[in-house]
Amino acid sequence: MRLIQLSFASRLVALVAALSVGATLMSSILLSWSNYRAMLAEAEVEGESVARLLARSASLARELPLEVEQMLSQHMIVSAELLAQFVDAAEKAGMTSAEIKSRLSAITEKTVLDEFWVTDEKGYAYIHRDNNADFQFSASAEAQPQAHEFWKLLSGKTDAVVQDARKREIDNERFKYVGVRGIDKPRIVQVGYNARILEKVDEQIGLPRAIDNLLGSGEIDAIFVFNKDSKLIASPKAARLNNGRDRLTDEELAPVRSVIASGKPRSVNGAGKLSVISPIDAEDGGGAIGAALIRMPTARLNSALASQIETALGIALAATLLGGGIAVWIARKQTAPVVAITKAAHNVERRAFSAGELSDVEERTDEVGQLARVFKKMALDFLDRERTLDALVTQRTQALQERNTELERLSARLSKYLSPQLYGTLFKNKTVASISAKRKKLTIFFSDVVGFSEMAERLESEDITRMLNDFLNEMANLALAYGATIDKYIGDAVMIFFGDPETRGVKEDAVACILMALDMQAMTRQLERRWREQGLDQRFQIRIGVNTGYCTVGDFGSQERMDYTIVGHQVNVAARLEQSAAPGAILISHETMTLVSDAIEVEEQSPLHVKGVSGPIRTYKAIGKKTPSMTEAIHEEREGLRVDVDLLRANKDEAISLLKATIERIRSSE
């Protein structure tokens, strides 16, 4: 999308208006923020007041349940001693254990007691209110974490044991137990009381009741109280009833621990509510003993903030209108000479500038007048230099075109003497020729025309030249088609390698080289037939040698003339393979065979002894490209003989008949 381009005057007006609006909005925002922070501070003060009230409620919540439990402990001790007296009297009167249990059950049903246990001198409870099973007291704290404390009554170390109300291990019910020693003999007389009433005391007198009373005013939505370990110990009634609206959020819970540690209040504002988290300090000044989270509605705060924003927007609008009028007046006054200079600059661009164009602006004595005078001098100098430069550019362009044409002719001639890869590396990639070399694994190809010297003596020079050029041209086309690098022509011999400056991989290069060699042998047979049709009845065959190994490849020569070629022992081996190959055959080394055996059909030949190599070199004859199944085709080639039968396409009866006729002709010619 194309942006609208504003003039200098428009930008100046916009700048003044933006500055006016920005200053007004910034002042309004700062004022609103200040008022907002003041209201937050007021809310935090209210939260601290509620926290102090909750601290007093917490103190009361701790004292009253303790006093109630102490009174209950005295009552249970008296009840246990009465039971001990009754058991002593009943056993002396000859009552059985079952009769005593029945009488005690009837008595305790009319009291606050829920359980009773009476043991013998070994701690075995044979009289109890539990209908499930008897109970054996133990002195082991590991076996009986709660009941073992009463074992001291059997040893006579104490007359009574009073336990605080706690949750039992067997059912997690909160119970209070009291025990006394026997009257007539060592025994345990224990009574138990379900302490649910103590929890009701906490709820009716302690923090929960204080929280519900504070919420009745309507100015506070919810209050949550945490102990020193950040554990929730009191909450609104709605939250205790699992009402989702009054649940704590993760944003509210996160700062609780830091408030308890630092003793400083914090606030969390979000989702239409303001939560103030204030520490609850101990009455003795011993630091924070917990924290209170007071959640208040933010309707009042949001209303005040919205009113201030509306006021700020009104002031900003008025400032915009006033600033815009002032900016228009200033812009018209200040931009007139700038517009004139801009118009003059456009005229310079169109080559239509005149010397008197800025005469009115030049008369000014300020910076704009000085700018107009400097611009006029610069424009006149520019136009004069441009005319001179145009003439020089025209002259140089013509010279460069002539030079470029000469270089293109030279490049075209040079491309015929270099391989396409080397030519592209030197000219297209801007590589600077230098004397350098590198060691790489390459596949080397050598070929030679069989009996070329005798052929050259028998044929006319024009015929031998045409034959050799046709042959080398076809060889070059095949080499380039397979991505090979033509190293050099040595008379009728050709040296080619794969793997530099471009490579597809060592194995892929080797396969490509053998496929190229097979096509070259087929190509020579086609040339031979074509020349025979042209009247040149001359046998034309080539022998080929291929080897794969590490060679040194690069630029060799002097600073004045260099040659891009390969050297090394593996190059010599490839040349020896070519010299040892039969006419029309392709002889390859064992290294090359291992790379191409899955794609090329080969036949092992006699080992080759090469000077400088300690042992014989294993050699193979490349026969042809492997087909999916060798039973689908017959391919045999010997000196003066070649048989090719496509078993999938040929008529087998016709092929057999033709082969038989050929055999008869061979026999009759003997």
TrEMBL record:
Any one Gene Ontology cellular component term annotated for this protein: membrane
Keywords tagged on the record: Membrane, Transmembrane, Transmembrane helix
One Pfam short name: Guanylate_cyc
InterPro entries assigned: A/G_cyclase, Adenylyl/Guanylyl_Cyclase_3/4, HAMP_dom, Nucleotide_cyclase
Lineage: superkingdom: Bacteria
GO biological process per UniProt: cAMP biosynthetic process; intracellular signal transduction
Spans through the membrane: 12-33
Every HAMP domain range: 332-387
Domain Guanylate cyclase: residue ranges: 443-578
SUPFAM superfamilies: Nucleotide cyclase
GO MF annotations in UniProt: adenylate cyclase activity
Protein name: HAMP domain-containing protein
Organism in which the protein naturally occurs: Methylocystis hirsuta
Lineage: Bacteria, Pseudomonadati, Pseudomonadota, Alphaproteobacteria, Hyphomicrobiales
